[in-house]
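Researcher: Quick test of sequence recovery. Tokens follow.
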């Protein structure tokens, strides 16, 4: 069932009508309560759904169609405005239910903090979980100006939860010096600036392991994704990000969940970012849900 049974809005293209026999569940986490720069990512999930109608159902990259995967668009988790603590709890509770039902969770943010309770819930089911993180920013702060719940902290939180050596970050080009030093001292993998080639080197070492993938849309250069809260020049192209998704699909890692966060439509009048995000989600569904 959806969060709102009376929901009459858009769903992601080709969403399956039934939760019970769906392999994957697509859901939104419309939260931007802790952003440090520009808000608006809470509107990302709904806009991604709306523009998905323009997608082709067939992926020439993977030679699969959306009909090949049974996925259910559950709508957005109803999160209490301005309350990050309660929001985090509600997200974790929902993912716990998906894990119990053996569903593949595919989330849409929302700010990047929403990934923390998802990864935490997935780690309960998969104690040997590894994280693949693609982002412009390290997200390794312990707090932001005294606030421990911040969109700049989710990767630090999951690294401390499952062990820094199980977290692999790619495309990083922004962060405090102390964050980079902490990662190095604690054995966490960080690939600066690039994604595809260092990812290809790491994937064989993760063969057979359960992996959760979290993608911040700002890993892309602002030329490719202007609609995000914290833009950072010098990012990768959409072509490289697509190739990275496909590299994971063609590897022997066991992807057990994923999310795509930080799409903020208000900063992109051309809707370029939302359209890119919807295509990325199509490839994630077709490539990672077996």
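Model:
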């Amino acid at each position: 069932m959806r969060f709102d049974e009376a929901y009459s809005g858009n769903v992601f293209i080709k969403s399956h009508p039934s939760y019970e026999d769906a392999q994957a569940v697509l859901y939104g986490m419309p939260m931007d309560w802790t952003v440090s720069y520009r808000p608006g990512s809470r509107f990302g999930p709904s806009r991604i759904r709306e523009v998905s109608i323009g997608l082709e159902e067939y992926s020439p990259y993977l030679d699969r169609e959306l009909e090949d995967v049974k996925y259910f668009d559950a709508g957005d988790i109803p999160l209490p405005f301005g309350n990050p603590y309660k929001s985090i709890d509600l997200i974790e509770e929902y993912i716990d239910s998906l894990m119990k039902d053996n569903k593949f969770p595919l989330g849409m943010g929302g700010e990047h903090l929403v990934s923390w309770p998802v990864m935490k819930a997935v780690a309960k089911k998969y104690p040997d979980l590894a994280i693949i993180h693609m982002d412009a920013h390290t997200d390794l702060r312990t707090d932001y100006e005294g606030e421990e719940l911040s969109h700049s902290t989710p990767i630090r939180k999951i690294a401390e939860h499952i062990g820094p050596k199980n977290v692999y970050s790619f495309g990083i080009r922004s962060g405090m010096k102390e964050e980079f030093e902490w990662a190095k001292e604690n054995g966490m993998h960080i690939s600066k600036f690039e994604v595809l080639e260092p990812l290809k080197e790491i994937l064989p070492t993760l063969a057979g392991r359960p992996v959760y993938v979290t993608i911040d849309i700002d890993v892309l250069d602002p030329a490719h994704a202007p609609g995000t809260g914290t833009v950072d020049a010098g990012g990768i192209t959409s072509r490289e990000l697509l190739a990275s998704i496909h590299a994971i699909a063609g590897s022997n890692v066991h992807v057990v969940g994923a999310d795509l966060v930080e799409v903020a439509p208000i900063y992109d009048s051309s809707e370029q970012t939302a359209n890119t995000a919807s295509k990325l989600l199509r490839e994630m569904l077709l490539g990672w849900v077996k």
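Helices lie at 44-51, 84-100, 115-125, 154-162, 177-185, 196-202, 238-249, 272-288.
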